[in-house]
Design a protein that fits this description.
Two copies of one chain form a homodimer.
Chain A (H helix, E strand, L loop, with lengths): L1 H19 L1 E5 L5 E8 L2 E8 L2 E8 L2 E3 L8 E16 L7 E15 L6 E9 L2 E8 L7 E7 L2 E4 L4 E4 L13 E4 L5 E2 L3 E4 L5 E7 L7 E5 L4 E6 L8 E4 L2 E2 L2 E7 L2 H6 L2 H4 L15 E6 L1 H4 L15 H14 L3 E4 L28 H11 L2 E7 L4 H18 L3 E5 L7 E4 L5 E4 L4 H16 L3 E4 L15 E4 L7 H4 L9 H4 L4 H4 L26 H10 L4 E3 L4 H5 L2 H9 L4 E10 L3 E8 L5 E7 L4 E6 L9 E8 L12 E8 L4 E6 L4 E8 L2 H8 L1
Parallel strand pairs in A: 22-23, 22-30, 23-24, 24-25, 25-28, 28-29
Antiparallel strand pairs in A: 1-2, 2-3, 3-4, 4-11, 5-10, 6-7, 7-8, 8-9, 9-20, 9-21, 10-19, 11-18, 12-13, 12-15, 14-17, 15-16, 16-21, 17-18, 26-27, 31-32, 32-33, 33-38, 34-37, 35-36, 35-38
C-alpha cells in the first residue's frame, strides 16, 4: 500500500513537472498535498487537505543586502523521497516517535546572473508539514546578510488565532489573545488557528540554531509573512554558505488534541548528538524561589536573604524526606544587589554570597542523595555570562551540580552587544545574536554534563532532540504572575490555552503546585487564580521533564494528602493522549509513566465548571486499577472556595466511565495504578 | 450521598423561602440549579450551572382573553421531591432510560381577585430541566382562551444558534442556519445553542398534546420569549381547567454529543398507555416513492402511474428476497389527480385506483411475509381525513396493514377548519387545531394496531413514549430535496446539523440509502450531495425506528456489496453513544443492536474531509470483532467522485484504534460483529 502510494505520487510528480514547472508531494496517508511552482520565476507553494486548499499560493525567497533578491529562478533538479523510521526519545511525552514523511527537494538556480543556487525542501507528514531553504556552497554566494525572508503563509480561511505579540518588551510573557487571523498584527510562534470548518493549525519553526527567530506579520487579509527578528543594525540574518534555515512548520489536525500529540517539530530536528545520556534525568525539584516572589525573602543580600546555607539545608532535608531530586537556590551568587535588571554585568557565577557556603551545601546535598540546582541569572548581560560560562560550568560540575537554571530578565531589546566599531548595541532576546548565545550555552553545558532549565529563553524549536540536556524552559507567563502581577495574574483560561500554543513548542517550566492559593499574609492583593485540584492537574497537563513543587515546604507539610499527587507524578512518559480539547475552555490529557504501569490524568477548565465524560480505554485490559482521584469539592470554585478538594480512591477498569467534574477555574488529577489484592479487598467493601 | 444532597437542598429551600419568597432546586448531581421567585408578584425563574448564571431572570405567566393576565401572585405552598426510576423503551435509541430528577412544585394564587390559582412545576435533571404550568379546576377559571404565554428564556450568553424560521409556508422544511442568538427573529424548536464558553443548550418542549406549538421570538438582546402559534382567530390556546401545559425544556451538555444522548424529552412524557405493544415492530422498508420524486412515475393515475398492482408485487418480491418488512406504496388511492395540494378534499382513503388491487397485493404480501405500508396523503385537508379516519384504519387493519404513512402537504397556514359560524378558516400545521388532530390520529391508529410514520407532522415532543405506535415522522428537509429542489438540494453540512437539532426532538424518516447519486437520466440538474458511503452512515446517524431503503430496487441489485450494510443495520437499539460531535461539521455515533451483540458506527462530515481518531472502547472486552467497514475511497469526493467506496473487513478488539477517513461530503459506516474462528483464520492471514 505504501509502495503503491509512492509510485503514484512519483508519476504525478513527473507528469506535472513536465508540463507546468510544478512539483507536488503528498503526505504518506494522501490527506495532505503540497504544490510547488515557479510563478514567472518566483517560487511559491500551496497546500491542500482532502483536495481543499488550506494555504493559498504563498511566496518563498529572500532579500539579500548588497545583491539582488533571491526571487527569480528555474528548476534545475528535483527529487521525491520517502522516509519512515521510529526513534526513541531520551526522555519526553512519548518514548517512541515515528518520523514518517514524503520529501520533495527542489533545486533552483537564478535565471539571471549571478545564477545563485537555492534548494527548497518540503516534508509532508500526516500531521502537517515543514519546509526549509538550503543555500549550498557556491562561488557567487559566500558571506551574506539576509534583509528579509519572503516566506508567506497565506491562509485560506479567516480562522480564530491564539497569539501573543511579537515585539513586546516582555519577551514571550503575554496572555494569549484570540482574534480573527485577519485582525492580527505581528505575532510570535507557535500561533494556533481554529478554522470555521473545524480544522486546527499551528505555525511555528523547528531547529532554530543560527538564524533569527521567525515572527509572523499580517500583510493583508489572512496572509501572514515571515518577519525575522532583526539585529540592531537592521540585518535579519548574518550568514555564510553552506547554510540551512530553520524548518517552517505547519501542524494540522482535525481536533485540537491532535496538535498536542504531534511530534512534527521534534522530527524536523537533528538526532541526538550526545553519546552518553546516562546523566540526563527528568526529575522534580523544590527550591528557594516562591518566597522571593511573595516578597517574604530577597534574592539580594541582607536580613531577608533567601539563599542562606541554613535555609538551603532545610530545603535539602525536605527534598530528601520526600524524594525530590533537586533543590533550586536562587540569589546565591554575587550580583543581585542593586538594579540587576539594568546592570547585569555585576553577576559573578562562581562567587557565592558570604552566607551561602556552596561547598557545604553541595556536600550536604550529596550525603542526602539530593542535588543542588544551580542558578545563573544574567540580567540579560550575556557578554558577562559568556566570559564566565566555561568557568561557571566547570565549577558546578566539580560540585556535583547537574542542573542549571539560567535567566535572562531584561526589557526587550535589552541584550548588550559590542559591535565591530566597539560600540554598544541592544539586541532582542529572539534575534540571531541571542539564538547563537542560547545554543552556545547548551553546547557548553553538555560538555560539563549539565542539564538546562532556561528562563527568559529563546522559544523552543525542538533542540532537545539534538541536545537532550536542554530540558525545559519558560517562555510564557508562569505561576509567578499570580504572586505579583498588578493586573491580577493569569486568568483561569490561561492554562487551557498554553497546551495548544506555547507547549506545542516544547516543555515548559511553569512551576505548578502552589497550595497556599491566597497567601494573604504575604501579598493580600494577589492570589493564585485556580482551585487546589487544578494546581495538581497542571503537572500532567503542562509537560516538563523538570517540574517544580513551587510552594513553601510548610504548605506541603500542612497538606500532606494532596501533596501525595506531586510526589507520585512522573516527569518522563511512555505515551500521551488527549481526551478532551477545546482551546481556551478545557483540556484533559492522560500520560503513561515511562518507568511503571501507572497512568496519570490531568484535566483543567477555564472560569466555567464542566462535567466531562471519559472512558478509560487507555488502561490495560482485564486489570483492576486503583484510581487515586484528586478533584474539586462539590462546592469548589476558584473565586469563592478554591481550597475545596476531594481525594478519593476507587477501583476502575478499562471499561469504566468517569465524569470529570471540574469546578469553575478548577481541575482534576488522577493517578491510575494497578490494584493489589489488598486494594481490591479494601475498595470493594 | 444522594440522601444527603436532598436534605441539604431542602434546608436551602426552606431557608430561602422564609426570607425572600424564593425557592430553589438543584439537579441530582448539584451541577444545575434553578431559582424561582416572585418579582413584585410576577413569577420568574433563573438557572445557574456550576454557580454561573446561564438563564438570567425570565418571566413566567399568561395573558388571558376577557380576564386579567395571570401575572401577579403570592406563593401558597411549595414542595420539593426527588424521583429516580429506570424504565424500558418499547423501542428506541436506548433500551433502559433513567429518569432522575428533583422537582420543585410552587403553588401560586393571584394576589387580587379573582384569586385564581396556578402551579409551576420545575424538574431539574443532570442534563437539563423542564417546567410546566398547571391550572387546577377552580371556580373562577373554567373555560378560557390563552392570548399569550409570557415564558421567557433570557439566555446569559450570546451563543451561536442553529435554527429554522417559525412561520414559513414550508412548515419545518428549511435549511438550518447558524447565527448569533441576538440576531434571531422567530424560530422553531428545537433550537440549539453553543455558547462562547463551550456549553451546549437546546430549547424545546415535551408532551405537546392539546396546546399550541411553542416557537421562540427574540425580544431584545439574547432574550427569547414563547410565541405560541395562534388559531386563525388570534387565540393561542383554547383551554379549560384542569389543564397542564407542555413542558418547556432546556437540554444542557458540556459537549454537543451530550444533547444527542439526553433522554430528557422522553422522561417528561407520560408512560406508555398501550397495554399490548407486541405488534409494534421497528423495521426497514422499501417502496414506490423515489420514482415519483425523480419524475419517472406519477402519484396520480395515467400511463406513468406508480402504484400499480404489478409494480407493487415486484417490490414485494424484492422486499421478501432481502428481508424488508414493509413495502410503502404512495399514490394508490383516489384523489391524486388534479391539484391535490390545494384541493385535498378529494382524497378517498379506502378507494384504490383501478390499477391497484389492494386485496390481491396485501394477500400476496402476506404470502411472502411482507406487509404493505399504507399511505394517507391528506393534502392538509384534515376535516376530510378525520371523517374517513375510523373507516380507513379499520380497512387497513382488516387487510393486515400495520403501518400507515400519513402526509399533510400544504403551504402554511393551509389547514381548512370550519368555525362556529360555519365559515372556512385557515390554520397552521403547528397550531392547537392540528396538534389535536395529530394526536387524534395516533389514538385512532393505536386502536387499530397501526404504527404511524407522519410526514408534514407536528414537531416531535416525545409522544412516542406514551403512544409507542407513533414511530417516526418527517418535520425537516429529507432526502427528496436532492431530487427536485431548484436550489440544489441539501448542502453537505445538512446531515451534520440534523442530529443536534431536529433529531433531538425524536426519530426522523429521512429516507436515506440513495445509491444512484447523480440520476442523470431522470433529473440531470439535480443530484444527491453526498458520497455513497455517507448514504450508508445516515442509517446510524439519523435514528428512525422505520428506516427506508429509498432507492429503486435495480440500483440496489446493481450494488450488492454496499447494499449489504442496509440489510444488516438494525432500527432498534440497546444503547447509543456519540464519539465525535461538532455541530455543522461532523458527527460520529455508535449504537448497539438491541437484538444481537453487534455494534454499528455512522460518521458523517460536511464539505470538508476529515481524519477522525477513535477508540473502540464500546466493544466488549476480550473478544475479537470483525469490522465490516464501508468507507469513502481514497479519491472520494461528494462533488468530483461520489461513488468511490472501499468495503473491507478487519479484525478489531476493544483496544483497537481507528482513523475514520471521511472524504469531503463523505461518511463511513461500520458493522462490528463478533468474529467466528473462521473469521479469525481468514482475516489474520
Amino acid at each position: 500500500m505504501k509502495r503503491l502510494l509512492l509510485i503514484s505520487t512519483l508519476l504525478l510528480f513527473f507528469a506535472c513537472q513536465k508540463s507546468v514547472n510544478m512539483q507536488q508531494v503528498e503526505s504518506p496517508d494522501g490527506t495532505l498535498s503540497l504544490t510547488f511552482r515557479l510563478n514567472e520565476g518566483a517560487p511559491e507553494y500551496e497546500v491542500a487537505r482532502f483536495n481543499r486548499t488550506i494555504i493559498n499560493p504563498s511566496k518563498l525567497g529572500f532579500v539579500l543586502k548588497e545583491a539582488d533578491s533571491l526571487t527569480s529562478f528555474r528548476v534545475t533538479n528535483s527529487a521525491l523521497t520517502s522516509f519512515d523510521e521510529t526513534w526513541t526519545q531520551v526522555w519526553g511525552e512519548k518514548k517512541e516517535i515515528r518520523n514518517h514523511y514524503n520529501e520533495l527537494r527542489v533545486q533552483l538556480q537564478e535565471i539571471n546572473r549571478p545564477r545563485r543556487k537555492m534548494t527548497v525542501v518540503f516534508r509532508l507528514f500526516d500531521d502537517g508539514l515543514g519546509f526549509r531553504y538550503e543555500l549550498p556552497e557556491q562561488p557567487n554566494l559566500a558571506t551574506f546578510d539576509i534583509m528579509d525572508e519572503l516566506t508567506e503563509f497565506n491562509l485560506a480561511d479567516d480562522a480564530t488565532a491564539w497569539w501573543i505579540p511579537a515585539y513586546g518588551w516582555n519577551r514571550y510573557e503575554y496572555l494569549y489573545q484570540a482574534t480573527k487571523t485577519s485582525e492580527l498584527d505581528t505575532v510570535h510562534t507557535p500561533v494556533t488557528f481554529e478554522t470555521p470548518n473545524g480544522l486546527f493549525l499551528s505555525i511555528h519553526e523547528a531547529a532554530l540554531t543560527d538564524y533569527a527567530s521567525m515572527t509572523l506579520r499580517n500583510i493583508g487579509g489572512t496572509a501572514l509573512k515571515a518577519d525575522l527578528v532583526p539585529w540592531s543594525d537592521g540585518v535579519r540574518v548574518k550568514a555564510q554558505t553552506p547554510m540551512v534555515t530553520p524548518w517552517r512548520t505547519i501542524q494540522i489536525a482535525d481536533d485540537a488534541g491532535g496538535l498536542i500529540t504531534s511530534c512534527l517539530i521534534l522530527n524536523l530536528n537533528e538526532p541526538n548528538k550526545l553519546e552518553d545520556t546516562s546523566w540526563i534525568k527528568p526529575a522534580k525539584y523544590v527550591g528557594i524561589w516562591w518566597d522571593m516572589h511573595l516578597n517574604t525573602a530577597t534574592w539580594g543580600s541582607g536580613p531577608m536573604h533567601g539563599a542562606t546555607t541554613e535555609r538551603t539545608m532545610r530545603y535539602i532535608d525536605f527534598a530528601a524526606k520526600y524524594g525530590f531530586a533537586g533543590v533550586l537556590v536562587e540569589g546565591w551568587n554575587i550580583g543581585w544587589d542593586g538594579d540587576w535588571v539594568k546592570y547585569g554585568d555585576g553577576f559573578q557565577f562562581t562567587a557565592p554570597y558570604p552566607d551561602f557556603d556552596i561547598e557545604k551545601v553541595t556536600r550536604y546535598a550529596a550525603e542526602k542523595g539530593v542535588q543542588l540546582i544551580g542558578h545563573n541569572e544574567t540580567g540579560a548581560a550575556v557578554l558577562n555570562y559568556e566570559k564566565q560560562l566555561q568557568d561557571a560550568f566547570q565549577f558546578y560540575e566539580k560540585l556535583g551540580v547537574h542542573v542549571v537554571k539560567t535567566g535572562y530578565v531584561g526589557n526587550d531589546p535589552s541584550i548588550k552587544r559590542i559591535d565591530e566599531k566597539g560600540e554598544e548595541q541592544w539586541e532582542w532576546h529572539h534575534g540571531q545574536f541571542m539564538v547563537r548565545h542560547y545554543r552556545k550555552v547548551i553546547e557548553e553545558a553538555a560538555r560539563h554534563n549539565i542539564m538546562l532549565d532556561v528562563h527568559e529563553p529563546i522559544k523552543d524549536t525542538g533542540i532537545r532532540r539534538t541536545y537532550p540536556n536542554m530540558m525545559t524552559r519558560e517562555g510564557a507567563r508562569g505561576q509567578e504572575y499570580h504572586a505579583w502581577d498588578p493586573d491580577g495574574g493569569n486568568p483561569p483560561d490561561h492554562e487551557t490555552i498554553l497546551p495548544f500554543t506555547r507547549l506545542l513548542a516544547g516543555p515548559m517550566d511553569f512551576t505548578p503546585g502552589i497550595f497556599d492559593l491566597l497567601f494573604d499574609r504575604a501579598r493580600p492583593n494577589n492570589r493564585v487564580n485556580t482551585t487546589l485540584a487544578k494546581q495538581l492537574a497542571l503537572y500532567v497537563v503542562l509537560y516538563s521533564p523538570l517540574h517544580m513543587a513551587a510552594d513553601l515546604p510548610e504548605n506541603y507539610e500542612a497538606n500532606r494528602k494532596p501533596f501525595q499527587f506531586i510526589l507520585d507524578v512522573p516527569t518522563d512518559w511512555q505515551d500521551t493522549r488527549v481526551l478532551h480539547a477545546r482551546i481556551g475552555d478545557y483540556v484533559t490529557i492522560v500520560r503513561q509513566d515511562r518507568h511503571s504501569d501507572d497512568w496519570y490524568l490531568g484535566s483543567v477548565t477555564d472560569e466555567n465548571g464542566r462535567n466531562l465524560q471519559t472512558t478509560l480505554s487507555f488502561l490495560e485490559p482485564n486489570l483492576r486499577y486503583v484510581a487515586e482521584i484528586y478533584r474539586d469539592g462539590a462546592d469548589a470554585d476558584w473565586q469563592a472556595n478554591p481550597y475545596s478538594i476531594e481525594i478519593i480512591e476507587m477501583l476502575v477498569t478499562q471499561n469504566s466511565n468517569l465524569t470529570l467534574r471540574l469546578a469553575p477555574g478548577g481541575g482534576q488529577a488522577i493517578r491510575f495504578r494497578k490494584a493489589s489484592e489488598a486494594d481490591v479487598q479494601r475498595l470493594s467493601r
